[in-house]
């Protein structure tokens, strides 16, 4: 009976193609909008989530921070030094590695080619903490840092930008007016929204302090590694206690530093992504509501047009439940066809938009979005199809047979 009613519904939709298309236009537009937006947001979400996960589940970032307003005015100093990092290594049992992170911008030259790049001063433990390793050559070691060697590790994009040889290990670069020898190239990371993640030159931290002076070493960030992912929360609490004591902050004063972890970054990003999804869902619900009214309207017209058919079916033994089921299935089928067309259109719009927006990552439609679109379409068809179906099922067979 169900399949019979389903095929009858498809036949009725096919017999009135234009009317069905116009009836389901709201469903088509609503579903297409949600699929298009979800595919674009999910494509972006996958790339950003991958980037955040790439920093490592045990990595902890500590940076100087002055809270806005009166809270910030209470603070005397907002700075972090490597002495803070050394104190963390000594007094925080939940961590096992730390490195200072000093960043400046400067002129990098190779022959006649030059450009401004971030110059990062770090210690050898940077690789393990960030889970970001050299692709070719080697990273600088403890001796390079201690002896302030003029050696550097570069990002992939620097090779192309400065037209370095294809095997640049051993070549020399001018970094901030000093000559540095290239000893390694880091793994390729790509770009997002035009921001190139492979444009940098990394040098030993002690060398960087020698270049930029001791004052620069007071405005650094600290990268710390917890001993295990389950110890990250405890490590954050311990780091906060140690730094507050070192900075002599009173109990009524806010922190003059920020602590970030992979979990916190993911939580913040997911909050934004979910907010966008909820806004889109609210907008789409209006389109689906309008589409549902269209379906109810056309189903009422259909009941009127097929009054004699209903009378004949009841005269040969059809029950009220059979008529009710027939029209409900027809309404749901109409909504599902609209939803299917909307999914295909939304996928195409999402793909097109991702290609037209410069530097936007590819779109991606998750299975849950498709299932959700079908579920909503079915619910709209069911909700708005019940009243016409109930009206059809209550028709008197004799009056229906007399209907002209």
What does this structure look like?
The chain has 404 residues and is an alpha+beta fold. The chain has helices at residues 2-15, 17-23, 25-53, 70-73, 82-91, 126-130, 142-146, 156-161, 205-212, 232-246, 262-305, 307-315, 320-356, 367-393, 397-402; strands at residues 59-64, 95-110, 113-122, 134-137, 151-154, 172-175, 178-186, 191-192, 195-196, 201-204, 221-226, 257-261. Strands 2-3-10-5-7-6 form a 6-stranded mixed β-barrel. It has a two-stranded antiparallel sheet with strand order 8-9.
Short description:
With 404 residues, the protein is an alpha+beta fold. The chain has 15 helices and 12 strands. The two termini are 28 Å apart.
